[in-house]
Amino acid sequence: MxxxxxxxxxxxxxxxxxxxxxxxxxxxxxxxxxxxxRYATDYGILEGEGVALVRRDGGSTLFLDSPxxxxxxxxxxxxxxxxxxxxxxxxxxxLIVRAGNSRVGxxxxxxxxxxxxxxxxxxxxxxxxxxxxxxxxxxxxxEIAAMRAAANMADEGYAVFRNAARAGRADYExxxxxxxxxxxxxxxxxxxxIGVGGxxxxxxxxxxxxxxxxxxxxxxxxxxxINGYYLQICRTLVLGEPSAQQRAAFAVYRDAxxxxxxxxxxxxxxxxxxxxxxxxxxxxxLGEYVTDAYTRVRGHGLGLFVDTKPHILEDVNTRIEENMxxxxxxxxxxxxxxxxxxxxxxxxxxDGADVLTTTPRELFSVAVN
Amino acid sequence: MRRGLMAWDAEEIxxxxxRARLACLQSEMRVAGQDALILYTNFIRSAAxxxxxxxxxxxxxxxxxxxxxxxxxxxxxxSKRVGSWIQSVKPVGELVNSPAPAAVLGKKLAASSAxxxxxxxxxxxxAGLYDDLAIALPNVDIVDGSQxxxxxxxxxxxxxxxxxxxxxxxxxAALDELSANVSSVGVAVGTVERxxxxxxxxxxxxxxxxxxxxxxxxxxxxxxxxxxRRFAIRAxxxxxxxxxxxxxxxxxxxxxxxxxxxxxxxxDKLIARIDVERPFHDQIAVPHGxxxxxWFAESPNGTRPLSVIASQDQPNVSLRAVPSLxxxxxxxxxxxxxxxxxxxxxxxxKRA
Lengths: 369, 352
Fold this sequence. Notes:
The complex is a heterodimer of chains A (about 375) and B (about 350). Chain A is of the alpha+beta class and about 375 residues long. Chain A folds into two domains: about 5-135, 3-Layer(aba) Sandwich (Creatine Amidinohydrolase, Chain A, domain 1); about 140-365, Creatinase/methionine aminopeptidase superfamily (Creatine Amidinohydrolase). Chain A is built from eleven helices and 18 strands. In chain A, the strands form four sheets. In chain A, strands 4-3-2-1-5-6 form a six-stranded mixed β-sheet, with helices on both faces. In chain A, strands 7, 8, 9, 10 and 18 form a five-stranded mixed β-sheet that branches. A five-stranded antiparallel β-sheet of chain A has the order 12-11-13-16-17, with helices on both faces. The longest helix of chain A is centred in the middle third of the chain and has 24 residues, at about 140-165. Chain B has two domains: about 15-155, Creatinase/prolidase N-terminal domain (Creatine Amidinohydrolase, Chain A, domain 1), CATH 3.40.350; about 160-345, Creatine Amidinohydrolase (Alpha-Beta Complex). The model of chain B has no long low-confidence stretch (mean pLDDT about 95). The interface between A and B is large, with 63 and 65 residues.
């Protein structure tokens, strides 16, 4: 909770609603897609679902369908009217109906509960997803400051991860150490996946109970959350001394990351950044491995959601602007060594990318006794 | 988002047990005249798909299509690169990775003879997915399938009973790991979370009431905040898709600890046998010197791993069709605030 950031966001949302001629906006959220709801209410929902009604005067009511969440929100979301309602959707629907001739918007479109979305046409509710997406992508200065704080935690968290990585330990034990560290340091949430092994590993996933052994590549992306803002780092380490193949492969990822970061500046598109990364792979005859058979995205936006817009892909033409925050990560499968990751978070400034994470871009080695 | 151990174990969750659950649901679908049933999942609403397939998404979302006869199909927005991982933790059914899972399933249903398709929790089904289905199925009746699933879900089998007990043991051990003399919120919640994850918890939500004398509300808090002389921690634990909650009250003084220990023993006895045939509220006979502040009971409900189904304000709920129960009681014991949450054993042939 940070009242300064929350108040700044609420003011910006109210101004944007006014510019778009909206009197009321209906915002849905859950713990997965929490960013729209967090922007509007500063509440980090964990269980159940929530719908906020935000008025143009800045006032908002947050409906929650879990009484445990409503209790928590009463403490954690000051300035917001909290309503527990087991029949949340019926209550919200009734309020939209009662809004009469008010101009009403809603977001996000894909996840809006069917009961509310099915009334959108007859109640004249507009889709405001794109409007809020812009607010989520282009950060305020106070949001940028929160992300810098989260970047420090990402670096420190990765150091804990490296220290926890030892031959014989299970992958989920590494996660346990990182999470305990984050809780002690005031990080309420973290997105984290992991990969352990060699050529057979095609991607990262939650821990499966694999024990670390000599020669394994251990990949992770850590994404600690401070005041609601997620900041990601991706690194790869080797149990024991890296092989010549592993080192050579890693050099391709490092060059691709650097090319992507160099391309990231105001005025280019997300596609330009992805292309800069992928050209490095293509130059090494690894073009097949930047397709969706092996990799999902070449980076993505960061903020109140772990995986926000813009997605860094060669077919995404979102214009990159100052104060956008994102991770550039040319993570993919390498046919000689397996899945490898490397990624740094950046802010787009007038001069280009300001890299937030400071962990060295190296293929780390963990000694094996 | 899930980030603990996610691995399928054929001994813990045999395929036959999942097939039996599926057959039970398909039987109810025939009774209801539903040609197919669609269940939504994400990591918040994971319970229904997990019950049928043992799979919970760590991220993104998906849909399970259950035909009236035959194997289910799971379509998910999780990308192809994690397809082999999904198959390793989802031992039944076909898998489709697609950015438009509802469109894929709609096409599959359109090619079948389905005339009536049910969706569990139709009202809260994501609109984007509903639209894709409706476009693909212009001549199909789309109805709510929540009751069909609820009837099939009301049975507790030995597999789920064992998973509940394992999750409960993890939660209790994690809370027991903590000393009442710890002074920082972050260290306290981190200790509980670390221990639970080391024991194989799939997910851990730790909530804390850092000063029970001023506020009994459990909040999400971490970092360097002080802990008062009386505090409580609630651990919500997932193990192989099965969720429990457990809460424990801590105090610094020996006198308070004695009162808490007596109340813990009373609570353990209470939750050891909840009679589903008796009014629930009548069974909460508080110990001498204690004052009941409140209570509520939770159970899996549709896609939700745990939902409040009864409380002090709404006590008259039948427990006969409840597969498992988590009970929370809040007391004042001779001036000592006390909160307890735990897995209850349901008497009348249903013991968790």
